[in-house]
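Database export, one record per block. Field names are fixed; values are copied verbatim from the stored entry.
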Amino acid sequence: MSKKGVGNAENRPRIAARLKSGIAEALGLPKEILLNLPVITATGNEQINIENYKAVVEYTGETVRINTACGMLSIGGKGLFIIRISTESVTIGGRIADVRYGG
């Protein structure tokens, strides 16, 4: 029998995220700062920049998979290439066809 509530280990990450979200809102701070959420900026279908990412997991000319705090981000297209990469952000160029989480 599992307990449901604040003491349940499964609920702790969700509770912490809600608490941090509330603190960010109360202080007027962007949530991505406290929650380390990715910030994704697309320029047409030719370039996409992802800030606050964890790791580039897969990189081919057709697929780039990036691990983020929200899960796996998959970018599909043709002729994809990494324009810039740093510890804070990664910029992908090429003909971007789709962007989705969970891939």
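Remark 1: The chain is about 20% helix and 50% strand.
Remark 2: The beta strands are 39-43, 47-51, 53-59, 63-68, 71-85, 89-101.
End of record.
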